[in-house]
Known about the structure:
heterodimer; A: 299 residues; alpha/beta; Rossmann fold; 2 domains; 3-stranded parallel beta sheet; 7 strands; B: 184 residues; 10 helices; globular
Amino acid sequence: MKFGLYLGCQIPFIRPDLEVSIRKTLPLLGVxxxxxxxxxxxxxxxxxxxxxxxxxxxxxxxxxxIAEENGVDxxxxxxxxxxxxxxxxxxxxDEERREKVNxxxxxxxxxxxxxxxxxxxxHVLSDFVGKKKLKENxxxxxxxxxxxxxxxxxxxxxxRIMDVQEENPFYPQKxxxxxxxxxxxxxxxxxxEYCCGAGPSIRAIDYEKSAYFVLTKLMSIKExxxxxxxxxGCSTCYIQLDETQQKLRKEGKVGFQIPVFYYTQILAICMGxxxxxxxxIGSIPKEDIIGRxxxxxxx
Amino acid sequence: xxxxxxxxxxxxxxxxxxxxKDEPVKEVVKFGGEGVKKCIQCGSCMSVCPVxxxxxxxxxxxxxxxxxxxxxxxxxxxPSPWICVACxxxxxxxxxxxxxxxxxxxxxxxxxxxxxxxxxxxEALRLLYETGHVIPLTGVExxxxxxxxxxxxxxxxxxxxxxxxxxxxxxxxxxxxxxxxPLF
Lengths: 299, 184
């Protein structure tokens, strides 16, 4: 099993510890990853797609064409990249658009065929690696712990553009199942699919409104689930729920703290990988949780 | 009251000449929002839109109504279309296959041509052209090295040839006409 790892901007530039967690876990699970050398920004929604459709599709097509040259499908850990590339791939099934884009790509010696598919890392783990292989590689268990999951909007909608789909994206199951596989309980809560408020531009245009999403979400999680920690499938949600939670605490709007993990971080810890290498940056301390897993969780 | 969609006070309504009424629709179609014509104002998109309830002036179906009425100028300077988080819920639930997200983005493209662009978007486009990424590097190289990663990702950022491709692509689209890209 081989995939082209499309990192995007956020993970390598802002949370490289997530990159480590991806690079360390996947190969141990039998997934060979290759770098898509020379890639660029997907391009994120607030950049080229907001200005011109041809520019967006050409840059996305260029990124996908790098995977095509390597004969691999793409796996990405960033929901934003996942959605931009998936939308582009869907639109480029239209022959007229594809021809137009290939005329632009011709100027830089590239060609888009539409052969490589786009997957989110959650999809690769749940639908390609699978339960059995994952379980074989676990050294620690989250037994007795309660986790609130946050899959993130962009890997749920619209299902028509995706190659791996949730049965009902308004009741997402894939991330929940992956968390429960590690031994934790992951109950449903009413705002499980609610947006984290860290959209491409809302945070920059109106921070107050963006933070309100986090507040609503945290209150719902605390009251309905009261978890030991939160696990996200999206790197943007991960940063937003962690950092904005800390800001809300300082503003006196939240009186509790819930640590936040990205799925491959908690997976890495459960697989016995050195926690210090996969959990390095963050606002709400995670040491307690990591300590509890390492102390009592050996399978 | 802030969630109620009210129409009416626009001065444009009075001045709008019948022959220009279809222009905004044609414009939105041209920029990728062809579905707008199919909107029946059912409100499904608004019922699932995470940002519709945050109090911006022109949430999805209200924007679509104005476009269909031929009103353009009133919304042109408004940031509402830029608030969309591109989550895609509206595409999933729309019974008429409008693809509301694409209409929002088409309107952004119109706004961009009228220089009504939030600074965050302009900066993102400029960074994409200059570095191949929209997030600037802020000294993460040391930590990356410490974590056993390459100092820079193996992207266009560390490859002048690939960066040149990104610039050539952008230069060969309508974005080049917007006066945002650097001159070099």
